[in-house]
Amino acid sequence: MKDLIVFDLDGVITSEEAYWDAAGLTVHELLYSPRYWHLSTGTPGEDMQYHPAVNAQESRRTGRAVFPEQALLALKARAINSNWDTSYIWACLYLINLLAHLPDRAELLPLRPWDGDWTTTFRSHLSQGEQHNPQSLEPDLRVLDTPPFHDAVGLDLINRCDDYASEVLAHPITGVFSRHSPFWTFCQDIFQQWYLGDDLYSRTYQRASSQPGKPGCIYFEQPLLPIERIRATLETLRQQGYTLGIATGRVRQEALVPLERYDLLSFFDEQHISTYDYVEQAEAELRTQGDQTLLSKPHPFPFLLAFDRSTYGSRFSSPEPAPTPYPFQPACMVIGDSTSDIIGGRAAGALTVAVLTGARTPEARSGLAQSNPDFTIDDVTAFPALLATIDSLQTIQRLQFSERERAERLLQRWFARHMDLTTERVSLTPKAVSLNSFNGVYRTGGEDYFFKTHVEEQGVLAEYYHAELLHNAGYNIVKPLRTLHTGGQQMVIYPLVDWPVMFDLLRDIETGSTSDVSLDLLVAAEQRECARLLEIYQATQAQSIAQEHAEAPIHQLFWHRLTGGRLDSFYQGKSIPFPESQNSIRFDDLLHYRWVINGVAQQYTLGQLIEQAKTTLNPARTALTSIGHGDAHFGNVFLERRQNYLYFDPAFAGRHTPLLDIIKPLFHNVFATWMYFPQEVARTLQLAITTHDETLSIEHNYVLTPARQAILQTKVQFLLTPMVAWLRAQNALPADWLLVMQAALLCCPLLTVNLSDGARMPPAISWLGLAQAVQVGNSGIKPWRTDL
Known about the structure:
Layout: E1 4-7, H1 17-32, H2 56-66, H3 69-77, H4 83-100, H5 116-128, H6 154-159, H7 161-169, H8 182-205, H9 227-239, E2 243-247, H10 252-261, E3 273-274, H11 276-287, H12 301-307, H13 309-312, E4 332-336, H14 339-347, E5 351-355, H15 362-370, E6 375-377, H16 383-390, H17 393-402, H18 404-419, E7 425-428, E8 437-444, E9 447-454, H19 467-473, E10 482-486, E11 489-495, H20 502-511, H21 519-539, E12 542-544, H22 546-550, H23 559-563, H24 566-571, E13 575-577, E14 584-586, H25 587-590, E15 594-597, E16 600-601, H26 606-616, E17 623-628, E18 637-640, E19 644-647, E20 654-656, H27 658-661, H28 663-670, H29 673-676, H30 678-684, E21 687-692, E22 695-700, H31 706-729, H32 737-751, H33 763-779
Parallel strand pairs: 1-2, 1-4, 2-3, 4-5, 5-6, 15-22
Antiparallel strand pairs: 7-8, 8-9, 9-11, 10-11, 12-17, 13-14, 15-16, 17-20, 18-19, 21-22
């Protein structure tokens, strides 16, 4: 299916004001016209006869007098979306109030307010009884919050009017005030006279208006926003390849006339225009089978019809139950301004976007929010920008922790749009290790597949995922079935792997939540892998010129984060709050402070370390290089058969210096527990900060667990130390090798996550991260390993 966006019209593109005018004028005519109820306290003309409103200003004033905007919006907030339904329920409530004030109603039973003879009798009773000010009989909106209306919305709310009338009139009322009542058709016809006007009404229905002199509110319509802005928005969407459709409660003629007048109709695909005409046809077919199902919004039918008329147009020829959620349709989106749009669009399987232009009151906006749209925007012109956000893997990565179901729906859409992949199910696996990535399993064709992507904002390198390069070099790696790199976004599809991930195994051991795997087993696996890595480094060694080395993807993790925008986006203009204090310090000021950490004075300030790192990590330098994974922390490593490392997600694999290849696993497997589990670590962390002049002293009790110490010792003994010795023996160890490693280690706590993000990091954890950055930037891992 093509990428389809289905628009509601009223409150999104077209203004509802003219419809509301028609709704009010319908009720006004019922109340005051001598043809109907003829309340004597109306405001007739000079000849004491009832006269229809003749222009836009009079229509607005007259209509709102009996049907205030507050009432219109309140009904809309309760998913009464059709303006026919709006005028109908207000007329019903008025009529019930009038009947309740009559002392003798016996002659009026059974109620038949659509019948001319009954109306004559009713009018006679009104004229003989006590005269009432119509304003005192205006329906009280508070009644909608009481039984039998309480919690009812949409068509269900309308259908409870019979129950309400039964209570108020103390007599059983059935089929008089429901949506199926002939009174609904009666009110609809008067509404159409007001909305279309005498001329268009007679041409449409081949009969004259019952009360002549109606100019037609349709001619008073105005676009909701400046037409140039709407036209530019629709043009942008069309240029981006989207097909535009309509699902409106208007009949076709009433939908197309204003769009033609605004020169907007050509933006919409005729095959994806759903109007009330189709609803009436489908309902008529159901009635022949004795089915009374109503197919207007919030039923999904209008949206399904807009999605695919050939498929869904005939699906409702047999009885259909109340709205049932349809399978998610990732290629379809619905944008509307009412709860009925959101409820119906979601039931049809679409992503839903609410616009606030039609929700004018706090009550309406609250109701719209409670209908749970996927996204909300101020008006339709913000839609193209929203689509860019929706289509971003960064958005999915952020949502996976807080709104997983929504993130999964967006990912299904992404798979369909960018990989032409129809998925039956997508299941994200949010993990603490997924700081800048996400992964999970999807099902298609009855088979499950594993997927992973690395999200790198401010990314500048074009080539990622050199899995074949790693395989040929001797790495035990899960080879992807499919890799996509487009528009700065990457996705890798793997066969499903059932082996446990090293990150989870080590965490289980240090928290004591497993007995299946021992620390000795993990340390032995780490030792074997260190030996194999050293062999691969040696076997694949080559001298790389500066340009070749500069193009290695691994530099995205270090130098490009320092210089490519991430440093500024994380910290520029931001402040770091002090723990258990209302005070904070600007990051720009913090750069100049001297640090004393647990009694040890640090040689360089954070600002000095950052500037040094920008120079030291500049990738444009000749180097002895080897083939490496680049990001082989335990989150990217399975433990195969409880023995060997099995790598995946080679997002930064390539040919680069081994000095950088070991940095991410060295830091993240050993030192970064606070980064993955900030709330848990914060519960036992004791951290105190004092400042004097421009010196900052920090004392904390954070130490490595025995499991992390064991991994560190193994990594140092079996990989780092022999690797440095080998490079030195080859005369390939740079003179500044220690500064290179320290600068790269600095980037790990400082630039993997945003330490100024208070929503993600408790203040004490932010300061612990900054302290680690200063320590490793000054001394590498020496504070933890004195043998280096």
